[in-house]
Amino acid sequence: MSDKMLCTDASSSQSAAAVKSLPFKQSNFLHSGIGGAAAGKKNRTWKNLKQILALERALPWQLSDPSYFYIDAPPSCKPAKKYSDISGLPASYNDPQTKLRFSTIEEFSYIRMLPTDVVTGYLTIRKATSIVP
Q1: What is the C-alpha separation between 131 and 94, in angstroms, rounded?
Q2: Which of 5, 7, 8, 37 has its CA 20 to 30 A from that of 24?
Q3: In a 3-state reduction of DSSP, which class is residue 5?
Q4: Cβ atoms of 109 and 93 closer than 8 Å
Q5: How far is CA 70 from CA 10, 23, 36, 47, in A?
Q6: If you average pLDDT over every residue of the chain, what do you get?
Q7: Are the CB atoms for 131 and 116 separated by under 8 Å?
Q8: Which of 49, 81, 85 is nearest to 67 (CA)?
Q9: Is this prediction's pTM over 0.70?
């Protein structure tokens, strides 16, 4: 049985089966990449970004020409997402004493037990200012 057809009653399949077409499938649909040569169309070959970048490197480009290597975009209008310094999960809270970000109460209790040099290390990894006593 074709996947385009649906038999409605198993007992009647021996005689003239009651078969109807599925409403969400079009019998005349033809994918653009399939059978293109038979229809007289040129087959397309799709290139991924890695192939496009390799082709761009091989071409003689001027420095002022735009390319995928030099795409400039304006800064985002959305605020940057904040993540926990301990777990890496999205953080909703800041410790006012250490200025570290955390997402759960367990992380907060862990932050409060950390020595100051470890807290300073976390802040330097995040490129934040150090603690002011």
Answers
A1: 13
A2: 37
A3: strand
A4: no
A5: 62, 47, 35, 19
A6: 76
A7: yes
A8: 49
A9: no
